Amino acid sequence: MAHPTAPSAPPAHEPLADPRRARTGIALVFAVHGAVGGTFVTRIPWLQERLDLSSGLLGLALVMPAIGSSLAMPLAGRFVHRYGGRAAVRGLLSLWCLALALPALAPGLPVLCAALLLYGATAGMADVAMNAQGVEIEQRLGRSIMSGLHGMWSAGGLLASGFGILAAHLDLDARLQLALTALVLLALAQPVCRLLPELRAAEEAEAPPRFALPPRSSLVIGLVGFCAVFAEGASMDWSGVYLRDVTGSTATVAAASYTAFSLTMAASRLAGDAVIRRLGAARTTRLGGAVATAGGLLVVAADRPALAIPGFALIGIGVAVIVPLAFAAAGRIGTNASQAIAGVATVTYTSGLIAPAVIGTLAQATSLTVSFGLVTVLCCALLPGAGALRLGEPGSTKDVPTGAAPENPSGKNLSPI
């Protein structure tokens, strides 16, 4: 049940009272969320060394955040419905910031796994809530902003990782660094979340279940996101190894590949909204799929770094806007935007979970070149799947993917947020 004093949500196309404030607020929310993740990844080597973990045991621990996210994301819709979008984002983002301090306090592998499970659960719920809020704000603004929001997430992660690298270089104890960073980001999250508009469920709206399988209408969209995230995860985790082992690059060039790929992704997402407004969601997805496929082919054919590096860059450019468009499309189907976004997020996060393992297993059985042949095939699959993301444009109600809710002839908001 919605809060008894909550006002009914206005129609999706009703203008926001303060559009600039709303857009600034949600952009900064994405940046704070990205900064938490960007901070953590820089101290993974410290965790491995302190707990004396083998690569296999560390890999087991690093699976836990994805498992926690997948299990907890369906619960986010309940929080959004009960407390409203702004309060849900503030509460869940605050928990995500605090969870940053937990892994470094673990005395051993079992506690580390438990801490990372909780870390992932808070990350996933905050992710769903802020994406649902972003879709709602985008719809009321009447123009695409989701790609730019995800660009801000990438930018926040990059900025925070820079501070993390500096802390590691100065040999700062990760327990102190992560605790201080958690408190700083928590403090930043409070005024940022106050910038968000108050969007609540209509009083008559039925509360979503505490846990439910993703709606079928989100699965087609999720599969498109799956292909993009697989290519992203494989490139981010394996590009350095590919450059070193396949093209014979130096260790320095190989190590710089992740940063270069991340910068490409961030820049493409920040510029992506302008492309989406000009070409539309489906055509942008097809163009992205074509660019990513060309990049994959270049990587597979590469025999030296000068070919592989542009190939990875093209993959990053091609898939950069796919996930933001997938979340935007999911938020416009059915009667519960949060549940549909959670469904798409679950599928895409699963892709990110299995991609590194699949690439490694296939490379062990054949070669890394063959593994990135699979990545190229998945990039190519974005071309026929592009139509599923037509709803990733503000105001779109046509060409709903198979199994999705029918077009809403009234034009009223069907979302509970």
Overview of this structure, please?
The structure is a single chain. By secondary structure, this protein is mainly α. It contains 16 helices and no strands. It has helices at residues 19-41, 44-51, 55-72, 76-83, 85-99, 109-141, 146-169, 174-194, 219-245, 251-279, 281-301, 305-319, 322-330, 337-365, 368-380, 382-385. Residues 1-13 and 398-417 have low confidence and may be disordered.
Name the descriptors.
mainly alpha, 16 helices, 0% strand, disordered N terminus, disordered C terminus
Produce a short descriptive summary.
With 417 residues, the chain is mostly helical. It is built from 16 helices and no strands. α3 packs across α6.
For the sheet with most strands, the description reads: none
What are the segments in which pLDDT stays under 50 over at least 5 consecutive residues?
A: 1-13, 398-417
Query: Whole-Å distance between the termini?
Result: 13 Å
Question: Which geometry do the CA atoms define?
Answer: globular
Structural class: mainly alpha
Helix content range: over 70%
Q: DSSP helix count?
A: 16
